[in-house]
Amino acid sequence: MTGTFGKGHHLHLIDGSAYIFRAYHALPPLTRQSDGLPVGAVAGFSSILWGEITRDKGAGAATHIAVIFDHSSKTFRNRLYAPYKANRPEPPEDLRPQFPLTREATRAFNVACIEVPDYEADDIIATLARQAVEAGGSCTIVSSDKDLMQLVRPGVDMHDPMKNRPIGPDEVMEKFGVTPDKVVDVQALAGDSTDNVPGAPGIGLKTAALLINEFGSLEDLLSRASEIKQPKRREALEQNADLIRISKQLVSLDANAPVPVTLDALEVTTPDPEKLMAFLTEMEFRSLARRVSERLKIAAPVIEARSDDSPQTAEETRLPFDHAAYEAIRDRAALDRWIARIRDVGHVAVDTETTSLDEMQAELVGISLSVDAGQAAYVPLGHKQGGGDLFGSTELVAGQLGLDETLKALKPLLEDPAILKIGQNMKYDWKIFARHGIRITPFDDTMLMSYALSAGLNNHGMDELSERHLGHQPIPIKSLLGSGKSQLTFDRVGIEDAVKYAAEDADVTLRLWQKFKPQLHRARVTTVYETLERPLVTVLANMEMAGVLVDRDTLSRMSNAFAQKLAQYEDEIQDIAGEKFNVGSPKQLGEVLFDRMGVPGGEKGKTGAYATGADVLEDITTLEDSHPKGARLAAKVLDWRQISKLKSTYTDALQLAINPETGRVHTSYSIAGANTGRLASTDPNLQNIPVRTEEGRRIREAFVAPKGKVLVSLDYSQIELRILAHMADIPALQQAFRDGLDIHAMTASEMFNVPLDQMTPEIRRRAKAINFGVIYGISGFGLARNLRIPRAEAQGFIDRYFERFPGIREYMDATVKFAKDNGFVQTLFGRKIHTPEINAKGPGAGFAKRAAINAPIQGTAADVIRRAMIRMPAAIEGLPARMLLQVHDELLFEVEESATEALIKAARDTMEQANHPVVPLKVPLVVDAGQGRNWAEAH
Length: 939
Known about the structure:
Blueprint: E1 10-15, H1 16-26, H2 40-54, E2 64-68, H3 76-80, H4 98-108, E3 112-114, H5 121-134, E4 138-142, E5 156-160, E6 165-167, H6 169-176, H7 183-190, H8 205-215, H9 218-223, H10 231-239, H11 241-251, H12 273-283, H13 286-296, E7 327-328, H14 332-345, E8 347-354, E9 364-372, E10 375-380, H15 403-414, E11 420-423, H16 426-434, E12 443-445, H17 446-454, H18 462-470, H19 478-481, H20 495-522, H21 526-533, H22 536-546, E13 548-549, H23 552-577, H24 586-596, H25 614-621, H26 628-657, E14 664-665, E15 668-670, E16 680-682, H27 694-699, E17 709-716, H28 719-727, H29 731-739, H30 743-752, H31 761-775, H32 780-787, H33 791-804, H34 806-822, E18 824-826, E19 832-834, H35 843-875, E20 881-887, E21 890-896, H36 900-912, E22 927-932, H37 935-938
Parallel strand pairs: 1-2, 1-4, 2-3, 4-5, 7-10, 8-11, 11-12
Antiparallel strand pairs: 5-6, 8-9, 9-10, 13-14, 15-16, 17-21, 17-22, 18-19, 20-21
Helix pairs in contact: 1-2, 2-4, 7-8, 7-11, 12-13, 14-15, 16-22, 17-20, 18-20, 23-26, 25-26, 28-35, 30-31, 32-33, 33-34, 35-36
């Protein structure tokens, strides 16, 4: 024993009642294999408990510990106010059997388990915390329950085990807007509908905090309620004063509960190994049993592996994050020990730290590894002296392994087909390692798992996934690197801080994998992940590393020509306006158009400036009869903006994007960027180069083939219309595609009763606008703007379209109904696109329906081209060719001139058969091919 509880002793009080509910709702389900008993909350509870009693000694470590539970749902508060907590729902069926198991777990870990009749767990915590401080010691309350925040004071703090973050006065102030000693007053005033604490009607937390801060206390506020200027607030206080005072009694914790134990009896002691292992074996907690056995230096029990497809037990995602437990690998012996452990386990989460987000130029600074939840390490390789100085020394910090030595040791492991590598956005790390001669295989990617599981529901970055699925907020990178002009690169971060940050990344990634892997099967998206997502990583990585050759001189000449064109447009615009002004200023343009030229319809936004977006200017261009000068000026400004964007976004920016080592532009594709499966191109974006204007098409002239080679473009012809014809089952459209007809002319003929041999370009253009517009759920207003015709006429076109092809309307209605019933829509290949806003009301409702209608069509087209890309490397193997770019429905290749026809045949066959054998379509897929010395010629 360490003697009577007093100075130097630290009591940890675990809020067992609150934690088991939180663990149940925040963490994935887990059942015992032998009998299906739910044990997920017990697993999370046990991991937290083990973490608390084994935490390294030091400031804040527990010398004494207890777990506090509610004895029953009824307490003295129900005699004060009968409705108190009366409306709380019954616990979920699969949680009820876990309550007694948490008590059993507490006793198995040799920790005091305390509950007192007629009192809530919070009252017992308040009492023990008071006793600890009065005895000269300190106390940490292990909980995030807001009701306990009133206890925070010198000597008493809180710790949120799910997010691994402390809760002190600052956090209380952030939550309630007042200091901890005033929390009770705010709670009494605001009430709590969950617990049936009445409070003052119409007064929420923010208003309550304002009032308490202004008047000092609840009693002073109630006694001076007549001074409140707002009538509703004043009446709420005056008419409900008694209820507010009762509310204060309900939320105030009783720090004098009759606790049946002394503080001395709560001292941390080593669990009885036999008793503890018996409990863990009974619960089938393999991972926790292994950690306990390693700590207690005893043999681990043999617990039969789970029968489901979980990579390990789901309990592992529930461990708290302990940055102090992460290891810095600074010598070869430690690295070899980790390599041996990885080979023994058979998988490893791996992450790289570099100096840049540009994988083609980034320097490798370190590598992090994790083999088990909570067990992670960081290998520093390139940290330099002068950590806080951006312009510090180039000399490496001592105590780091050599880069070449480390990569040589890791290469066999990273390329071993028997060891699974796990990453978050693995494409980035794959390219970093590939630049050092390592080709990672096989691998899993947690970002893509999340994308397959929840496209449309959330983003798939690691920080968001960690908070959403693990209840943990990772260390923000800005806290290490800073921001703005003074931002550091990672090689300037101190190794101690780097270990916590980098190892945490690997730890989080491993836990996400443990959570997502079994869910793929349950959500029926394993095939999507395995055939459409994961295989695409290496295909895109190789394309991005290949890059595309860009002629800097061509870009420079275009920039100069665009600059002259802009100057010409500016002169013409100012001549029309009759005055000089900054054409690039929306504010000045609005004043010229609406104030001085008198163009009707100007609307000012919140800033007081007129709206002058493209849609506004497009509408003004239709006013040729009523306001010809305004229409001409708006049209010229639109032309000026288009050229300005081409210059800044492409001809100027692409020159800066040319890699100095390769002479090529290396875009980066985002696999999980769009909900529908379409790829997004960034840094630079090569997918939005305009092709409908002469200037836009000219930019493609700068993308060239090296000497002796040509560029080949293969493009799906009207793939989304073909998929619509199949999915909506429109016989007329299907037959037209099978016959190779001009689909837009055929549609025009069907709609407007015009024979094909009498078709005019204008009628065909209108049919084309409707064909493509329908896919995107275009409205009569939108079509009117596109065709520059009256809205009634445009709506008439759409109505006639649906009358002629009723199957399309039926498809749309059925798709919206499916989305409302299921919360998602699906592509023909099984990709799920979630539609969380499908039942929304108001302005967003129309957009949500249009998105739901379009998603299966666009998503299926995206899946087809993904399948083609994934099959392409094998299809063109042996040919002197490589795939460079994907732009929506187009693939761009670089090939030796002599092999051009062979490439076109192999690539076209692959693309046109990409849907087979999984989804036979009722229409053929057709691919157009072109070739040339530059992209413009090939397209």
